[in-house]
Design brief:
The structure is a homodimer of 414-residue chains. Chain A has 414 residues and is of the alpha/beta class. Chain A has three domains: 174 residues, Molybdenum Cofactor Biosythetic Enzyme, Chain A; 77 residues, Alpha-Beta Plaits (2-Layer Sandwich), CATH 3.30.70.2860; 152 residues, Maf protein (Alpha-Beta Complex). In chain A, 40% of the residues lie in helices and 26% in strands. The first copy, chain A, contains 13 helices and 17 strands. In chain A, the strands form four sheets. Chain A has a six-stranded mixed β-sheet with strand order 2-1-3-8-7-6, sandwiched between helices. A five-stranded mixed β-sheet of chain A has the order 14-13-15-16-17. In chain A, β1, α1 and β2 form a beta-alpha-beta unit. In chain A, α6 crosses α7. The interface between A and B is large, with 77 and 76 residues.
Amino acid sequence: MIAEIIAVGSEMLTPYRVDTNSLALTAELNKLGVAVAFKTILGDDLQQLTDAARIALRRADIVLFSGGLGPTEDDLTREAVAAVLGVGMTRDASIIESLRERFRKRGIEIRENNLKQADVIDGAEVLPNANGTAPGQWIDTTFEDKRRFLVLLPGPPKELTALYTDQVEQRLRAVVPQVHIAIASLRMAVVPESEVDARTAPIYQQYPDVQTTILSTQGEIQLHFQCSKPTLAEAEARVREVQSRCAQEMGDVVFSENDESPEEVVLHTLAERGLTLAVAESCTGGLLGQRLTSVTGSSGSFLGGAIVYANAMKTALADVPAETIHEHGAVSEEVARALAEGIRRRTTAAYGIGITGIAGPGGATETKPVGLVYVALADAERTECLTLNLSGDRERVRWFASQYALMLLRKHLL
Amino acid sequence: MIAEIIAVGSEMLTPYRVDTNSLALTAELNKLGVAVAFKTILGDDLQQLTDAARIALRRADIVLFSGGLGPTEDDLTREAVAAVLGVGMTRDASIIESLRERFRKRGIEIRENNLKQADVIDGAEVLPNANGTAPGQWIDTTFEDKRRFLVLLPGPPKELTALYTDQVEQRLRAVVPQVHIAIASLRMAVVPESEVDARTAPIYQQYPDVQTTILSTQGEIQLHFQCSKPTLAEAEARVREVQSRCAQEMGDVVFSENDESPEEVVLHTLAERGLTLAVAESCTGGLLGQRLTSVTGSSGSFLGGAIVYANAMKTALADVPAETIHEHGAVSEEVARALAEGIRRRTTAAYGIGITGIAGPGGATETKPVGLVYVALADAERTECLTLNLSGDRERVRWFASQYALMLLRKHLL
């Protein structure tokens, strides 16, 4: 069975907003063994929406709509679905009552247009929405001689996901052929996508029953494996096998087989060993600290550190001798090492990380180009320093600098 | 004229990836007065892709494809477009030559499948791609008695945007009816979307010729105005008028009428006045520093600061007296004030910001719930402190804390 997701709303046709509801819906549908084959995004036009619904019903078994269930004139999903199915709508007394109740509680007068949300397409089941005014609708019908399932969901992400989980998942599970899906992933850092693909494709291509997706995000390459089998044990055995063979091939660049982020991997290892970390960041300006503290419970191992953007701060907050900066420049291996060592001493952490570099677009000199970054790691015994020549814009240089810093520490902890 | 954007690639049908190419394309098309009415996202299936191309050619004047121009068997956009137009393809000798040249330079053997990228749809103009191997194609044709323009663009964002700018923009400009578009925006912070809408709708609804979009992103509400008129002066006059009336209505919560971010506004004002800033961050862990240093040239006003995640760091790096922490707790107004004052003194900055709070999900006590955050701002004369009770998850609490900190400083600088 295949699905189409239709996202309704003119804001998604502006330069400012993409449809993200489809990501959560896709993850859920995949769990049932349903692939999403099409996504359509369109605005609040009844004719266009009706035509799009017809196209979707011809090419997909399950059609999910997100959005267009609100109280305004622009909310036309109900009308379009009724039109394409050639049925009417009935205003539902119990929905009206719950709408009135909702407004009463908030002390707001209900307006006539709100009652529109009580319109139920003939033949539809109402899906109560605990988090908003617009209920969803579920339709199991025959369209041009084929059995089709239509699901109307509200656009706000929290309402949509809760409604899917509470109301839709069980209904779909009852009608889609039962399969068991296992998933697994490998996360790798600071390695080119082309290298990962060249080395792992000969392996994963031996598993035609496993769907393999390679994704490249900033400074990270992920392999996702998915397999559907009559039993979960069979599916899991297959994804585990291809995962483990690819992991073996890629070796050290794999930082997680459990879908952990680089910062999670580093923090968990530090916590296991009772070790602590502090950072002194120049060009990353707090990015590494921000990444580490985005992890719940990071306070167990991450002490803090210094943002040493100005040169005087490198001395004042991380004890870099002014003469080191004067002699080698703020962007130098010597300063990176001094930052790592200085912040470690100052905070009494087990590890100190120092980062200094030229994130660009300005700041380059004849000998020091944009993208030159030094990342140093100090422990009680020694200090190690990476010299990086990163390409790309300011954001990319900074992100990769933080990524290399995490990978340097991870390697050290291995 | 209306456009449809078809994004081709199975990765965009997974739970991991959305189409973002359409955002840049939409911004460019809007500048020409062309609205995007439909977006379709689908995978690498020739029949599905051919059908989708047919649907698009029926409902849109301009159809832009992104992706599916690579060298693999899965890259089928050329084949699908040729099929729907009922024409053939010719392998282009000059493209083959430039492909061979490209591979020679990189010292790689060219493989047979790469030559596929030299296939040109009959009647198409080749759009050379300076940044990759897959050239684009431009087709001006008649489909079912209507004039249609098809644009085939490579999927990698940098190749796509460069190719659009260099090759497509001028071709579209020559064929779309000439209009002049003016845009303007208002950016507001720490105000609910519903309040912005309630207060500005009575104004912008008086401008039916101006398309107004309200967007809510984390801690920020944006109003975007767009107007198309026979002359640019007329269009600009209209968007300026509605922008200025809405700005007047919203008052102080508007932080930019020039599409600047909160961090840009604060840094520019500091730079104008020759003032400096330092931060001491506990629960935000570097996020505020990271936001400030994401702005090019921030080193002029932002000195740096301390990430004081552990209590001992609050004392060691920002001189918060241990007894203040002991007496009031790390999450307290007293500690926020001491952080702001301490980091200011330590760094000799004009302003010091201190942030301490409970980002969650753990860490709450009976009297201090998740979301309780103190943000303090100190200058030479006085220290001001905000008490925030933020809702939402860890990421949201941290982001809003940094947003309130920027807004507190901005208000002070007004």
